[in-house]
Amino acid sequence: MNTLYALMERTKACFGVQICVHDVSGVTYSRTSLNLPYLWMQHGCEYCSVAKRCLSEKRCMRQKQLVMWMLRRSGSKPFFGVCHMGVCEYILPVVQGGRPIAVVFASGLTKEDREESRAKLETALVKTPAAMRGELREGYERFARESMVTRDMLRYFAELAGERILRASIGMAGRGESDPFAVESVRREEGRSGTVRAILGYIEASMPGTVSLGDLSAAFFMSEGHLCRLFRQEMGTSIIAYVKRMRMQMAARLLLESAEPVSVIAARVGITDPNYFCRAFKSVMGETPSEYRLSRLDTSMHRQNEQRC
Predict the structure, then answer these.
(1) Residue 299 exposure: Cα atoms within 13 Å on the Cβ side
(2) Residues 103 and 91 sit within 8 Å (Cβ to Cβ)
(3) What is the chain's percent helix, strand, coil content, to nearest 5?
(4) Of 155, 185, 215, at which residue does a domain stop?
(5) How far, in Å, CA of 68 to CA of 23, rounded?
(6) Helix crossing, 130-146 with 114-126: angle to 10°?
(7) Which helix (DSSP H) or strand (DSSP E) does residue 115 occupy?
(8) 181 and 252 housed in the same domain
């Protein structure tokens, strides 16, 4: 169990505690012993997946953004909380050199917070479409059976994961090269640092919801100015331009995959003004949404006819 991923898997299997790590410095990308599948860098337990499918990932991302703001305002102090869907969490910032390098979320249903958890679920169900309430209740009950723990357990496993991250980051004096916690060289992929790769992952997870500089600044514990300079230096474009391009590329796929009106496609990628959407789409893709859809579909039909001949 010499990697962070192995530790997290074992903790989930043996104790029902789900751990996820929000990387704010790129440390999980830069040390091989800390590499994680992206699912384990967000709330990806079965119940959370059901909640996101039945409701919206936007609400979960908003909860995460709120947590990051709270950590920043408190000076990176750990705390307990219960999310809007009744999941109990211990949130632990991993601090190195006075600055957080990651945030560990240890989740379950704590015995001490059962009543508050159930109350939050019932409040959420009132705002949930009736057809989805049964699935959410079943998911919650299954989660409760498999993940009934105590606050002390959540704290213990969060601290265990946090220690693993910190030790891998700073190394262990006097250890040999075979030590799994020895400092590893920073790896780059496509010229991107671990920090920027973490930012890109966060933006992708937030789409098609709003992604503001303020949210990113809070999530990665750096000023907006430094964030923008770092991103432009490595990506060759601004964060705003990058997010805009991502939205338009998402819209381009939807235009070809469905026959929905352009206004509906615009709303699905987070833009409420169809006129602005058309202008933005043309500035990125070189054609209006209607022209793009028509030209691509005509090309596809032409190829099919050629193949038949």
Answers:
(1) 7
(2) yes
(3) 60, 10, 25
(4) 185
(5) 12
(6) 160
(7) helix 114-126
(8) no
CB 271 within 8 A of CB 279: no
Instruction: Write out pLDDT tens, residues 162-182.
Output: 999 999 887 633 344 333 333
Domain-embedded: residue 18? yes
| Whether residue 260 sits in one domain with residue 180 | no
Task: For the chain, give the mean pLDDT.
Answer: 83
Band (pLDDT 50/70/90 cuts) for residue 224 is confident
Is residue 242 assigned to a domain?
Answer: no
What are the residues facing 80 on neighbouring strands? 90
Q: Please check whether residue 68 lies inside any domain of the structure.
A: yes
Query: Are residues 279 and 157 part of one domain?
Result: no
Mean pLDDT of 133-140: 90
Residue 209 within a domain:
no
Percent of the chain with pLDDT over 70: 88
Structure-token pair, residue 293: 């859809």
On the question of pLDDT at 217 being above 90, the answer is no
Question: Which residues fall within 8 angstroms of residue 47, CB to CB, at 6 or more apart?
Answer: 85, 87, 139, 140, 142, 143
Tell me: do 151 and 275 sit in the same domain: no
Position 212, amino acid:
S
The predicted structure's pLDDT at residue 15 = 93
Two tokens at 248?
Answer: 């338009």
Given this model, what pLDDT does residue 171 score? 65
Both ends of the chain: CA-CA distance in Å?
A: 59
Q: Total structural domains in the chain? A: 2
Per the model's pLDDT, the better-predicted residue between 155 and 305 turns out to be 155
C-alpha to C-alpha distance for 71 and 81, rounded to whole angstroms: 12
Query: Which structural domain, as residue segments, surrounds residue 255?
Result: 247-308
